[in-house]
Amino acid sequence: MQQIWISKVGPPETLKLQSSPDPIPRTGEVRIRVQANGVSFADLWGRMGLDKAAPAPPFVPGLEVAGVIDLVAQGVPTFKEGDAVLALTHYGGYSDTVCVPYRQVFKKLEWMSMEDAAALPVNYLLAYLALVVMGALRAGDRVLIHNAGGGLGVAALDVCRILGAETYGTASPEKHAFLTERGLNHPIDYRNFDYERVVMDLTGGRGVQIVLDSLGGIHWPKNYRLVMPTGRLVHVGLSSLAPGKTRSRLRYWRGAVMVPFYTSFRLMRETKGVIGVDLHHLWAQAHLLRPYLQQIITWYDDALFRPHIDTTFPLADAPLAHHYLHNRKNKGKVLLIP
User: Fold this and answer.
1) CA dist., res. 118 & res. 121, Å (int)
2) Which of 55, 80, 275, 281 would bridge with 59, disulfide CB 3.0–4.6 Å?
């Protein structure tokens, strides 16, 4: 099989294509011949050595795949050879062949492309967890989505549109037309305007019910101020702490020490909620994740959304895919194709 390994912490060029023997699934696992691999911002953080949940290099990154099962081990009651599936891989996904516990595997709909299937597990599951499960999103809520043009941002926008929320999204100006067509109500040019002031102006000084914060750092206090009483600030990322293609320990720790201290008394007094969501710490809780991803697949089946696939790269060109995400060129999802 062919795999992409992170040889050491560093820039995208540390991603190396290597050949290895095909893996043999253990009890409770299936083997998948991969036809599409998802690329997420978490993969970039793992390569830069900023993802504390990632293995130490060398390791194979990648959290989501789609393909066809070609081998089923003992203890797998629900799948058979030949089943087309999508799966959460929890590292190891940048490969043309993977073994995955069957509880992290989902049957692909016949009319779902392999590319669409690979685009669902991470971004749409994280958006659903953050907005619906933890954020208690309801029709009519006002939601601020940061990095609205990225993979997670587009997934969050789809979830909000399906449930009838009013959306505000920060994105570079060249992505505004795409996002407006996608359903974004209020695109915000964060490069030339203070998004806090824009949101307050648009809402008459009331703020929003939910802020989906993938930025962190200096944005924490601003986003907290934008949350109205009874609202929720949902932390899902720290992209502002790693703006380059390699890690800067100084910048990371400068941002980390800016984490606000939310006391219970303050939250009670202001009637706000602060929530954190991290998929990495839920891999062992497959029984929690299954119904949420199954709901996303049902929405797809009902034609309520389709993921936007921006660009695909050959598996061997994984470094180019990482450069593409670092440069914020993508609108929606980037995939690798073995």
Assistant:
1) 7
2) 55
